[in-house]
Amino acid sequence: MEEETTKMLGSLAKGGVTPSRFRVSAMCHRVSTTDGHMESAYIEVGERVDLDEVKAALRKFRGVPQELNLPSAPTNPIIVMDEEDRPQVKLDRYAGSVPGMSVVVGRIRRGLDSKSFRVTLLSHNTIRGAAGSTILTGELMQSKGLLG
Fold first, then answer.
1. Which superfamily does 36-143 belong to?
2. Residue among 105, 106, 102 nearest 127 (CA)
């Protein structure tokens, strides 16, 4: 999990992926749910962080799939919830314009100091995870002319 995160947030070079240089510490606890993966993340940054700016940046984020208006790309890849008890698997796993393809983020709170914060994230494990990500990747590859 730690290694894959640095790859996903790294950069693509001609020879492959260059992992990001920041450190990741993670643990995984398997809990039986019908659908959906939840994560709690604690994030430390180099300067004071404003929680409203974090929320605004997450709400504003759009990636290449949104820029290209790909069929499987949700309008908002990240949905920020302000309710204190959200996201919740049963209520939010199908959130978004393409049900299940958005990541739902909530419980954005101050960390141990002004340079840290905590978030809870929810993604649908099969729609956004295995199947949906594969389809979206194929659509992106097709749009970039990488498929024959």
1. Dihydrodipicolinate Reductase; domain 2 (3.30.360.10)
2. 102
